[in-house]
Amino acid sequence: MTPEDITHPAPLASGPVCIVGASGRSGAALCRALLAQDQKIIAVVRSQGNLAPDIAQACQAVRIADLTEPAMLALAFEDAAIVVNTAHARHLPAILAATTAPIVALGSTRKFTNWPDDHGRGVLAGEAALEADGRPSILLHPTMIYGAQGEDNVQRLAKLLERLPVIPLPGGGRALVQPIDQRDVTRCVVAAIRLIQSGNVSGPESIVIAGPTAVAYRTFVRMVLYFAELGGRPIISLPGWMLMALSHVTRHIRKLPQIAPEEIRRLLEDKNFDIGPMEHRLGVTPIPLANGLHHLFGRRSPEKHKP
């Protein structure tokens, strides 16, 4: 993440922003973006050894806290003007109990799934806690995030595709996906912080953040193949139940990335969303998928791609 990737170059307000999960992918990207704008930040991590050295040296303070131990949180959030939670949204009730500061947090569009799991239910619980609390807050629900260093969505998919002579997809990969670039996630969080600092948030808000357009999953796979320069692969359609059964077998093949049955089942449902609130409320126009994949893999020109 570089300063040019953020649409707000001016320094933010002087009150420190407390970043929970500063050692994670989204948390680290946000820390670097805010530090580039001379924003004072407090990094909250479970282990200081996991925090990138450049962030540890530049932030106002590094505080150690476990989100499952409420007694530690009040000290971790002391003096924070805003608390930003980049960890799982299920921790929001504990965070709300430990501070009176406004909240910006990352949720997930997993909350919309037809097959609820612990991840989705945790997001819904965090959202309900913010609604009940009533303080100024913005909960951002990203779709599949790609483009961060070490992310395990697109990069894990590319590793799997590299090993497969044919690509089996449930339902032929016709369901829609709308991935969002990590840089856009960071821009959205910065914009949410801005809104709260400017006093333009009076209560809880929930906003979906996604890429500009949805594509069929089979198109997404072909784009990953193209930009990762993996060559063409035939795509075959298989029933979802068959692929879920096969996923149990692949768990015993060490060279293959592990695909859980639940992940395959979610490929059968459309994940397309209206980004109007993201564009109008946050002022963020997302990066086209072809441009984001080109940036991630650093190879072919997006203009040449034809899904």
From TrEMBL:
Transmembrane region(s): none
InterPro entries, sorted: NAD(P)-bd_dom (IPR016040), NAD(P)-bd_dom_sf (IPR036291)
The NAD(P)-binding domain, residue ranges: 21-91
Name recorded for this polypeptide: NAD-dependent epimerase/dehydratase family protein
Organism, as annotated: Gluconobacter cerevisiae
Taxonomic classification: Bacteria, Pseudomonadati, Pseudomonadota, Alphaproteobacteria, Acetobacterales
